[in-house]
Structures are given as C-alpha cells and as structure tokens.
Amino acid sequence: MSAAGTLLSVDADMYGDSHYYCGGSPADAQSAASAYQRSEDASALSLQCGCYTMTFGCTDVNGRDSTDSQQVCVVDDTPPEIKIEEGYYSFFAKTAAQPSGQAGLVMCGALVGAFVAVRATKRRNAYEAL
After folding, report:
1. Hey, is 11 helix, strand or coil?
2. What are the structural domain ranges in the chain?
3. What is the pLDDT of residue 87?
4. Which of 24, 38, 29, 31 shows the shortest CA–CA distance to 73?
C-alpha cells in the first residue's frame, strides 16, 4: 500500500534584492514557479535562480490528508564571461607585436608615470608646515 503525492503549489521566495543577483525580477521568478507547477519540468526553474517553496499534498489509503513544504533554491554558479571588443584587443596586440610599437607603449607608460609624479610633487609643495 502506498500513498499518492501531488504538487499543490510553487511560490517564488525572493528575499531582499536577491532578484538583482539572479538577473531577473520577482515577477520573472513567479512566472518560472508557475511554469514549473504546470509542467513539473525542472528546466522551468533552471533559468531563473532564486528560492521556491513547493507544497505537496498526500492522501493515504485510509483517506487521511497531509501537506508539507520543501524549499528548493536554484543558484547561478556559472562564472561570468568577460569579452573584450575586438578593436581594442587587436590594436594593443598588433602594436605590441612590433618593436616600434613596444617602444611606443613603454614611452606612453613612462609619460603617464612622469605626469603622475609631477602632479604628486606639486601637491606636496603646496602644503605649508604648521
């Protein structure tokens, strides 16, 4: 003898600003919860991270009813992918590949360093001893 259990409800539990970290809104999470409740297909929740409270009901062979809830949290653990626009990367790559480009980049770095040093010295000289 066994009892048959059914999914009664799925509610999205978005706490604080957790929807910001999930890349969606509370309405998106609730839509995912509704889609899961209709289909009971886990992929409905896989694209919207967040916590969901699932309530199940069961009736045993003697007609006794019971319900219980389970919290399921979907976490986005995919590392972010950083892409650099092709133009910027290729410019520096091509420049650094040539000896004259390497010298030019070193000179630009030296000029920026000298500029910062001169500005810092001017600021220090503007103070008076107390």
Report:
1. strand
2. 4-74, 86-125
3. 57
4. 29
